[in-house]
Write a structure and sequence with these properties.
- By secondary structure, the protein is mainly alpha-helical.
- The protein contains five helices and four strands.
- It has helices at about 5-30, 40-55, 75-100, 170-180, 185-190; strands at about 110, 115, 130, 135.
- It is globular and about 55 Å long.
Length: about 200
């Protein structure tokens, strides 16, 4: 199906811009030097790539990496321990790299999961549930525990799941406004309660 001239021009320009962007990003590893040795894991390779692009000063403000495999319904303790160790080791190398390059105060790491877990196990693990946890890590973060733990009392659960007590869009609003200096209302779709200031 053929589009109109405007659509085709736009798609052509977008394709050229994407190709130009890929060429620029491909230059980042050539500019990168570090004494930090990252582990040979997928998540560590992704974070090293983030460091390379960030250190190249290309103006990128948001990076996204993923660390999969947490959808464990069986053998959960062993698998989760393995996955968290990989993430911990990769983040340790990443922050060592930031420190070596005096970039630690420029970076905020936001860790989240797209789903929670059930409170009760299924015999060998846990199934999908509501409620979850997020982590903010960085030299500019006021450390500590924010908000309240959800109740484990069965009478306080929602269909057997933890009842969340804070809307994640409030945290997104915090990050957008207090870290990126971007108005959040249009992005998150409204005004949401924010947590106490977490940026130093």
């Amino acid at each position: 199906m053929m589009g109109n001239d405007f659509t085709m021009d736009y798609l052509g320009k977008t394709g050229l811009d994407a190709a130009k962007g890929a060429d620029i990003i491909n230059e980042a590893p050539k500019l990168y030097k570090s004494e930090v040795e990252y582990p040979n894991t997928n998540i560590a390779k992704q974070l090293k790539g983030v460091a390379q692009v960030h250190f190249a000063g290309l103006g990128t403000r948001v990076f996204y990496v993923n660390h999969g495999g947490f959808d464990t319904h069986t053998n959960e303790v062993v698998l989760q321990e393995f996955l968290w160790q990989q993430l911990s080791d990769a983040l340790s190398s990443f922050f060592d790299d930031l420190k070596e390059h005096n970039k630690g105060k420029e970076v905020l790491v936001f860790i989240f999961s797209e789903f929670g877990r059930r409170v009760d196990d299924n015999g060998t693990g846990t199934d999908h549930g509501s409620g979850g946890v997020s982590f903010l890590i960085g030299e500019s973060v006021n450390g500590g525990h924010y908000n309240e733990y959800p109740s484990l009392d069965p009478s306080e659960r929602v269909e057997g799941d933890l009842k969340f007590n804070f809307d994640f869009r409030g945290l997104y609003s915090d990050i957008l406004e207090d870290w990126l200096s971007v108005e959040s209302k249009e992005i998150v779709g409204g005004n949401f309660e924010k947590i106490k200031p977490f940026i130093r």
